[in-house]
Amino acid sequence: EENVLVLVPAYNEAGSIAHVLEDLKVTNYKVLVVSDGSTDATSTITRELGFRVLELPINLGVGGALRAGFRIAMKEKFAAVIQIDADGQHPVNEIAHLISAVNEHQAQMVIGSRFLSGIESMKVGMARRLVMRVLARSSSKATGINITDTTSGFRIITRPLLDKFAESFPTNYLGDTYEAVVAAGRSGFKVIEIPATLTDRTSGKSTASLAQSVRFTFKGVVVALLRLH
After folding, report:
1. How far apart are CA 106 and CA 129, in angstroms?
2. Cβ of 114: how many Cβ atoms within 10 Å?
3. Cα separation, 163 vs 143, whole angstroms
4. pLDDT tens figures, 62-84
């Protein structure tokens, strides 16, 4: 736990960040919240709860926020980063499972999948499920294993992959999830999945509509096919 940094990218998540941080408070993990140009009380709440926050002056998107956090992790010589969202979807009590899987399988990325347990803890519409299947098939081909949940942001990334991501990391929509998995797999890094009980957001709503998701998904697949990442 001492050499692992929990990285929480957050953009205007004042309604849910406290819940996530309260769960993290009972653990021994080092935590860094990256406030991605937030204009609400995200940073204030983080500090009041006693956690460190990196405030970005403008909104860079999840990929940009994560890359900033990766660079701090590398500078401070952390061996791994746990990536979780600030909206309360990711189970803090299952972080230990990610760490155990890394150690057991010597993987450089372990993804927590909502589709491996056989019990769905999160509602996914038919259209979004179709999109996820397209992405899963593409990322499975790139990594050489069966990926079921390529858009899950609940994952652990270890060095030397962490160093690569600190240098260059996709910042567009799906870049931090799907493209990152494809890039890691094609570069020869070991990527695996484990079951995770992801849930619905505790507050707010997704910033992307279904139409935007489909459009960005098509763009992401083209980027992957043409190896532009």
Report:
1. 30
2. 23
3. 19
4. 999 999 999 999 999 999 999 99
